[in-house]
Write a structure and sequence with these properties.
The protein is of the alpha/beta class. It is built from 10 helices and 14 strands. The longest helix has 14 residues. The C terminus is likely disordered.
Amino acid sequence: MAILLNKYSKVIVQGLETDAGRFHTKRMIGYGTNIAGGVTSGQGGTVIEERPVFDSAAEAVRETKAETGVIFYPAQDVKMAAVEGIQAGLKSIIIATGNIPKRDMMFVRKEAAAAKVTVLGGNSPGIITPGEALAGVISDIPFRPGNIGIVSRSVSIMYYAADMLTRAGYGESSCIGLGADAILGATFDEILWMFEKDHKTQAVLMIGEIGGKYEEQAVKTIKKMKKPVVAMIAGVYAPPGRVMGHAGAMVEGKTGGAGAKLDALSATGINLARTFMDIPEILKKLGIKAYLDNIVVRT
C-alpha cells in the first residue's frame, strides 16, 4: 500500500516542454514512474521524452486515464494549469513551482476542496513511494521501501530524516512534501489521515517548521489517530521576522514561532524528536520494528 502514488499511478506533466519539465520527467521515468504524457498548449500531437503531448489536461486525462499531474509552469501560469487539471478530473496535483501569488493559491485551494482533489504546493518537492514511483522534483537517494510515512514542509529536513530512518532499518512507505510557499494546498491534516488509513504505514513522521499555523491546526487530527505520530519542528533558533530560506518559513510576531508549535503538539502527548537521532530511538520505544534487512545505503 501507499498514499497518493504507486507503481500503477498514471502521471501527466503540465509544462513538459520547459527545461525543468524535461529534466525531471527523465528522472521520473528513470525511477519507474508511469509518465503517461505531457500537456503543452499548441503542441498537441508531438512527442517529448518519448511521451505524447496533448493540448489540454482534459484531453490528456481522457486519453491516458491519468490520476496525478505535476506542474512546471511559471508562477503566473500555475493557477490556470492547476484549475485545468482539477476540472479535467485529476485526483492529485503537485505544484513544483514556487512563489505562487497568494490570491491565486487561495483560488486553487477553493477549487481543489470543492472537487476533493489533493493539491501539493506551491514549491512542493512532490511525492515518493520508495521502490515504486516518484512524482515531482524529489530526490530518490535517501529513501528505501519501509513502514514509516513522512509528511514534511521542508524537503531538506525530510532528506535528512529519511536517511536516518533508512540507516536505522525502517525505510519509508510514502513521503509527501507539502511545499514551502506561505499558502499551501493540502496541509498536514489531510496527509496524516491518509497515512492513518494506509495498511503499510505503521507510524508517521511529521516534519514542521517555523511560519504559519499548519502544525497547530494538525492537533485535532493527531488526537483522532490510532497510529503513533513523531513530530519534529525545524527552525527552533530562528530569529523573529527573518525568512529562513523560503516564503513559508517566517515568524511574524507571536505567530509561527517554534515554541508555539512545540507547545501545541506537546499538549497532544505526541512524541517530539529534537534531533534526527531521536527519531529511530522513539520508534523503537513505541515498539515499531525495523523493516529493512541487509540494506545498502548509498554514500
